[in-house]
Amino acid sequence: MPPTFKKLAAIAIFFVALKVLVDSPYLKDVKSSIAHRNEASATLDTPSLRQTATNKPSTAAQTPADRNFDVVVYGDEVPGICAAIWAKKTLGAKGKVVVVRSNHETAMLGGVLTRGGLGYVDLDKIPDWYNQPYAQCFREFLDKANVPESCLEPKTADKALKDMLSEAGVKVISNSTLTPHVVDNKIEYAEVKGSGVKIKANSFIDVTQDAELAVKAGLSYYTGYESQNIKSKNETLAISIVPTITGLTMSDLRKMEDDILYNTPFVEKIKTSIAKSNDPASTEFWMRNFLSTIYQAYRDGYNIRSTALGAAYHVDRNLPFTQDKGFFFDKANICVYKDNSMSWNGFLFKYQVDQLMKMEANDRKPTPEMLKEMSYLQEWLQKKSGKDVRVFIPDEVYIRQTLNVRDVVDPLTGQEIIKGGTEPEKSIGSFSYDFDLRGGVKDLSSRIPGLPVYNFGIESALASKVNNLAIVGRSSGYVGMAVSVGRIATVNIYQGQGVGVAAGLASKLGIPLNTITSAKTRATLETLTGKTTYLSGRDTSYGVNYKEVK
């Protein structure tokens, strides 16, 4: 063969091989990863700070024995991990429990607390919560994740959850989107999208943020704050980017805040800007704690109580200081990790509920406008601090609310919460946290009550029209103002532990999940933990008639 022809043949073979490589799944995954990297600081966007899910083929079990379970938990939010573990504890060694999730196998476990970057945990305000039977899974999680007091680091949280599942003998099936097949008010099986694999179980627990399995099963739901006021059905709600920020210390932040507070002309400019975008009552609200400096609430957590930093950013960016639409730099909760990086929860974006539901269908990915605003934020922090600040975007945005399932055994209402929650015989525990309407909600037609201390059970999580299904999380059976408390992760983790026990009991007794009571669940929790439940729920209306609260 002539040398020239050999060279041409070699070149042709090279380009064929290159085409095969470019079309390979691996390179497509790499391309996807690069395409979704944080625009603000792509050069520092390392795998240790970001995980990218891909759409690889399902790894669901292929043998008939592995398709049949006592309990299937769908979704990998922390309440679901606890539900799975405590279902297994209830069933014992022979119990078959599985966590099924649509995420790629390399994605961190833990949902909003890991992939969403929500490091600052909203702890229960009942002083002895950690001694209660229903709080033991949450307590174990915090211990294994090495939480100093209130702040989770995503990587250690992911490892803690994996260790807990492994120790409990609960398997995880990734890359598997489920569609339930309902016959005679029961999920007969759930089919894995794209594979035809059918997964059967005595009970299914839906812990996805948007109640994906429950909605597919045909359960009805409220959207937004519709159950408080029909006008709020599609109102704008606040969601957050909770970035990890490096190159900035709390001392730097305090200096930035002081530089603003002691600059009298600039403070006057801020006041004018706030007044221009708000009515007198709202202006007074935003200026109320203007001189309150950064407060260390926990060993590892800080609260920005003044609007100074946020208002200064709005002035410098020429953005209206309003929560009605667009971006809002709010007061903040900040975690400081061991490597001095920060988790910063205070950057809000407002969208209508139908837009948020589309984001959820798109795996809660940050939008281009969010990434662009975070790029501006990085530049502003660099300029104000004089430091090499970098802003890293998590895989998922933090969506506080979209829907709540209506078809549950006994919904929990805001009015009930004000009065102390569920009756003792219908309770597994108690919880205390503020009615949290961060970012504001229009047309609520209600005052915001004070700090509640209330009892809760499992009946608000048990589907009434699908006998073997429970919904745990912010999309559970909360009504009216209860939505603003029920979305808090801590109480959902408590309830997840209880619902897991209930699912285990249903399987052992051979009865439908929605016939298991809170009383039976509480008794089993006490047996399993060797601890006694003390219920703290009480009327916190203090004589005020909150008749408008649903």
How would you describe what is shown here?
- With 550 residues, the protein is of the alpha+beta class.
- It folds into 2 domains: 64-230 and 402-529, 3-Layer(bba) Sandwich (FAD/NAD(P)-binding domain), CATH 3.50.50; 235-399, no CATH class.
- Helices cover 34% and strands 18% of the residues.
- It is built from 16 helices and 21 strands.
- It has helices at 3-22, 25-35, 78-91, 136-144, 154-168, 212-216, 250-261, 264-277, 280-287, 308-317, 353-361, 368-385, 414-418, 483-486, 489-509, 518-529, and strands at 68-74, 97-100, 171-173, 178-183, 186-192, 198-206, 221-223, 236-241, 244-246, 295-296, 301-304, 326-336, 342-352, 390-392, 398-399, 403-405, 412-413, 429-432, 453-456, 469-471, 478-479.
- The strands form 5 sheets. Strands 8, 9, 10, 11, 12, 13, 14 and 15 form an 8-stranded antiparallel beta sheet that branches. Strands 1, 2, 3, 4, 5, 6 and 20 form a 7-stranded mixed beta sheet that branches. A two-stranded antiparallel ribbon has the order 7-16.
- The radius of gyration is 25 Å and the shape is globular.
